Amino acid sequence: MARRFRYDVALVSALKDLEEDIMEGLRIRGLDDSTCTSGFTVVIKESCDGMGDVSEKHGSGPAVPEKAVRFSFTIMSISVRAEDEEDAVTIFQEQKPNSELSCRPLCLMFVDESDHETLTAILGPVVAERKAMKESRLILSVGGLLRSFRFFFRGTGYDEKMVREMEGLEASGSTYVCTLCDSTRSEASHNMVLHSITRSHTENLERYEIWRTNPFSESADELRDRVKGVSAKPFMETQPTLD
């Protein structure tokens, strides 16, 4: 069971809520709002996490799974590049980016956050909508004029467990300790410096195909060593950034 908004509709609602802040930001920066109709850039922080045990203990309602997961987003900043300027100017910055008040739920679902298949099924359309918005612009009336917005999505609100689940990696007890590189626990304990970020969504997809097809007819241990912690088909690209 899940309830969600369409991603573009939710972003329109969030931007309309910030309409006064956008216009105030233009005024403070001394920008003529009639010339700033395009070149708006919005940075979105995505978050997804389990909400723990939410089962109904006493009521007579329908039985629900015991776990819930919430996918949400926060508008971190809005900037604009005026027609005759080279550099973008920030006109809105979220002052409390980790607050519940700035966090906007997009999807609520009854599912265990370790249930990779169900998460994939529910969040797959969200990922498709996000990908479509990465490659397009949103035209929205703000301050009485139509303005053009582009969106950049940063997946910095996922904890390690969710990153592993979305990228199809083994869970937290894995021999491969890092979600950004191929180090094992023993390698990481001997070398805390020379780690490089080698994980990518595309590479994890390729490794899953190797895991699934076993093209070299290897044993389970050899195959596992080759894919280095990839255990399922990844469904969401997460960026190697720290919040």
UniProtKB/TrEMBL annotation:
Ranges where the V(D)J recombination-activating protein 1 pre-RNase H domain occurs: 1-38
Gene Ontology molecular-function annotations: double-stranded DNA endonuclease activity; histone binding; protein homodimerization activity; sequence-specific DNA binding; ubiquitin protein ligase activity; zinc ion binding
GO biological process: adaptive immune response; B cell differentiation; chromatin organization; T cell differentiation in thymus; V(D)J recombination
Domain V(D)J recombination-activating protein 1 ZnC2: 176-238
InterPro entries reported in the protein's UniProt record: RAG1 (IPR024627), RAG1_pre-RNase_H (IPR058553), RAG1_RNase_H (IPR058554), RAG1_ZnC2 (IPR058555)
Every V(D)J recombination-activating protein 1 RNase H domain range: 42-174
CC terms in the record's Gene Ontology section: DNA recombinase complex; endodeoxyribonuclease complex; nucleus
Protein name: RAG-1
The encoding gene: RAG1
